[in-house]
Amino acid sequence: MTTALDTDLAALAEARAKAREARAAFEEFVGTSQERLDAILRQMARAGTAAAEELARLAVTETGYGVYEHKILKNRYNTTFVAKHMLRQRAVGVLWVDEHSRMTAVGCPVGVIAGLIPRTNPTSTVLFKALAAIKSGNGIVFSPHPRAVECCVRTTEVLAEAAVKAGAPRGLISCLETPTLAGTRELMSHPAVSLVLATGSGEMVRVCYSSGKPTIAVGAGNVPVYIHRSVPDITEAALMVTESKAFDNGTACVAEQAIILDEPIADQALEALREAGMSMLEPSEHESLRRLLFDERGGLRPDPVGQSAVRLGNLCGIPVDPEARVLGVQLDTVGPHEPLSAEILGPVLKLYRAPTPAAAFDRCLEVLRFGGEGHTLGLHATDVDIIERFSALPASRFPVNTPTLFGGMGYSADIDPSFMLGTGTWSGSISSDNITALHLINIKRIAHEVRPWRQLASDTALPP
Question: Which H/E stretch holds residue 142?
Fold first, then answer.
């Protein structure tokens, strides 16, 4: 009891100290030009790219989740592809000028950001949030998941050192080394902090929104994907789905979860999925997988998260092809009575057959409403009427004929590149966008008079 109390007190003290340090650094930093910010961003991105392998190894070793080679790619995606996109934008200073309306928009940093980091994608998320914070002229203090502290601290050190060498004040970027719930709450609610930027579980998101601070938080994504009879290439669609779900052992919330197969092409699609690396479980094997993945209350157990398909099979005592990359389970229902229909942060795909597009639409809606509302829906189709019809569903992004992971994060589809995907008010998030540096600023509008103020009465008069 004394040890727990001492840990909480240490966490509170650390959160307060680092929030104050970040605020002091920000006050010194505020007013830095976009050109100078970009120079610092470049140095941080180069340092992050150089350390990508080290950070990936630390993440896999500490968390026990994911695939080393894939975590390297996630790290480099943020320090190369996303960073280049950031450098093409303006986030501070004059953003645009509208000569006709005589209005100038000016971007201003929000201040110090509290950045919450999940266990599933720790180093890549720190990289993304730190780069976005500096691009927009802000300071940031990270609060990592307790099982991802060391890799997050090291990632922060790499970035902070590069930023200081490039001219940023020390303390502008930091990470809590004793993260507890009490310490995280203290950081979020501290007067020095202006904004909370949170990625994680639904419970964590609720905690963030109760902090009393403006919050951008994103959580779960139970992503349905409809493969319609007008799919351009069933073999390619099956490969996309399998590669996307197997990537980093399914730890990305934007990866495919439930595949809804149009009945006329269902058998062909199932065969293509098997050839692409999916091992289909028998109905009699489903219960073993349920017990492994979910607890008695239907919550996802943490230990099986981010494990390979073969390892999941071994843990269940189910014989699985040693070359299998994804496990497939064919289901008939969605909801709490069938835990396997929930979001699974692992290489498990749920498969449904739909006799008609109307039935597929209803099934996609069921999946979204069971933990995925507002996130993402994938489509493999060329029928424009189908694409238009399914776009009415409550999701924020609709990657078409591309993997939902790579399309949703803004690589294979022309959505803003990001490692933080908003889910909109459908799921209690403030934004449905892919979050970028432009979400981390206040915008001032310098507006000159364009019509005489004395005309208000005459302009609002009712017609005779």
Answer: strand 139-144
